[in-house]
Amino acid sequence: MSATTTSHPMSEVLRLQRDAFHRDGPPDAATRRDRIDRFTHAVVSHADELSEAISEDFGNRPQTLSLVADIASFALEAEMLRRGVSRWMRPRRPGGRLTALALRAARLPAWVEPSPVGVVGVMGMWNYPIALAATPAASALAAGNRVMIKMSEAVPRTSEIFANAIHDAFDVEEVAVLTGDVEVSKAFAALDLDHLFFTGSAATGSAVMQAAAKNLTPVTLELGGKNPVVVSREAIKGRDQLRRVAQRVAQARLVNAGQTCLCPEEVYVPEDLARPFVQEVFSAWGRDLPTLFERGEVTTIIDEPAAERIRDLLTDAEDKGAQVLGSVRSDADGEEAMRTARLLSPTVVLGVTPQMRIDTEEVFGPVLQVYGYREVDDVIDRLATRPAPLVATWFGRDDGAFRDFVARTRSGGVARNDFALSNALPGVPFGGVGTSGMGKHHGVHGFETFSHLRTVAGSDLPVSLARLLGGPGDNRVLDAVRNGLGAYRSVLGRRLR
Q: Is the CB of residue 323 less than 8 Å from the CB of residue 351?
């Protein structure tokens, strides 16, 4: 079941956690803060070991990337959860203060109470193995739940260090970390959990959802998609502006070697400026890549099947007429060395058509598709026919054209003039829509995802609602309801006129 510290079968871990949840009841704010602190300390105190293990699992990944994107980002999120949990878990007035007062005056006191759901399962993803497992897990702890975490089988060294660190800080009744292969992941998704959080591809997300559906387990999916970037003509009026935008897009595509669900995949540029834009993208890569190679800061593709899938997408596109332009030129020995090291040359693809697999498949590698457009409306119309991505990016001013773009497109979030802003700022909800995911987390949004907003209502009236609805009937009540509906019908008629 697990290569690490807990020897209990998964079903036994679930039983232990559920029994403990019912035995102890919802934890108070102090207990939740303590759990968040212990969980965060377990991660942060092993930051160097974890970042080294991530690099080993990848083949090579810069320590700075892991410390910032996996450890520090999680620590900031955990601190936000800790500071907010006391406020978020308070009972809430139904419908606002006036409604609550009116109900109390009517001798019908009621409130809405955020309640933990029970045992939450988290399925992490290999591309940011700590952040994508620890962040939702901390949100679930803030909401008062017990947590089971299944780490990705693609990062075994990282998973072992993380699991041991967490199990040193927690009894299995509070938090358990499970490792293992794909079969373990399938069994985990089929557990009778109270909520399941999954990060990964749309195809795997669909399979996870099917497994969870057998138990009617609520599911939150964080997926991805082909994130578009639209460069407005206003943003690149001069060569310096063009260069700045191209550099930002080029650098964004290299984050984690493109193995990031928020990375740009498709770039739409005014038709007459598409070629100069591509030239500036290659110039940016040409400036950055030698330094990255020299300093050992080039991230490798996670494994050979992933690298081969990207190569196949490029071969398929080229065979069907696309221009596939690599940024790194090398002799046969150099190309073989890059292939062995799972290093892919950052690439631009031009002339993509619907017949090519790359038109619809998420690349998840350092590849940009660039399209020229005549009118922004043409781009918006195209995006309307495609699956909603996790993020759509606009380069340009916050003007009418940008607001129109926001209003007429669907995506998990919208960023303007930079990479992933809509999903990276503190306090904003992180989540997709349609094929890029369902549900959201981060901050209070994560707290509410893993809480049940439970209505508690009472009556101090001498009259029973059951008597009113279940009869025997009272003609006075019947007349009053008819008169009320008649008056409301008149109000609606006046509105419609």
A: yes
**Cα distances (angstroms) measured from residue 105 to each of 98, 457, 466:** 10, 14, 21
For residue 72, what is the DSSP state?
A: I
Rounded CA-CA distance 21/236 in Å is: 57
Domain with residues 10-223+441-452, CATH architecture: 3-Layer(aba) Sandwich (3.40)
Residues involved in catalysis: 222, 261
Task: Say what the alpha-carbon torsion angle 475, 478, 483, 489 is, to the nearest 10 degrees.
Answer: -160
CB 117 within 8 A of CB 446: no
Give the homologous superfamily in CATH for domain 228-424.
Aldehyde Dehydrogenase; Chain A, domain 2 (3.40.309.10)
Q: Which of 4, 19, 31, 54 is nearest to 302 (CA)?
A: 54
Cis peptide before 472 (omega within 30 of 0): yes
10-223+441-452 and 228-424 have identical folds: no
Distances in whole angstroms, Cα of residue 383 to Cα of each of 146, 313, 405, 431: 40, 21, 10, 19
Q: Tell me: pLDDT of 2 over 70.
A: no
Binning pLDDT at 50, 70 and 90, where does residue 60 land? Answer: very high
- Supply the mean pLDDT for the chain: 93
- Taking only the tens place, the pLDDT of each residue in 23-40 is 999 999 999 999 999 999
114 touches 143 (CB < 8 A) = yes
Q: How confident is the model at residue 96 (pLDDT cuts 50, 70, 90)?
A: confident
255 Rama class: left (phi>0) / alpha (psi -120 to 50) / beta: beta
How far apart CA 135 and CA 79 sit, in angstroms, is 11
Which residue is associated with the tokens 């993509």? 352
Q: How confident is the model at residue 84 (pLDDT cuts 50, 70, 90)?
A: very high
- Is there a contact between 33 and 82 (Cβ–Cβ < 8 Å)? yes
Beta bridge partners of 203: none
End-to-end CA distance of the chain: 67
Give the pLDDT confidence score for residue 115 in this predicted structure. 97
HSE-CB at 404 with a 13 A cutoff on CA atoms is 12
- Tell me the β-bridge partners of 228: 266
Looking at residue 5, what is its pLDDT?
44
For the ranges 86-100, 110-124, 213-227, 447-461, the lowest mean pLDDT is seen at 86-100
Residue 477: helix, strand or coil by DSSP? helix
Q: Round to whole Å and give the CA distance between 424 and 415.
A: 10
pLDDT over 80 (residue 275): yes
* 471 — pLDDT class (breaks 50, 70, 90): low
Average pLDDT rounded to a whole number, residues 357-386: 97
CA distances from 211 to 126, 190, 272, 361, 415 (A): 21, 5, 49, 24, 34
- Please state the pTM of the whole predicted model: 0.93
User: Is 120:93 a contact under the CB 8 Å cutoff?
Assistant: no
Q: Which two tokens stand for residue 151?
A: 């780490």
Distance CA 379, CA 372 (A): 9
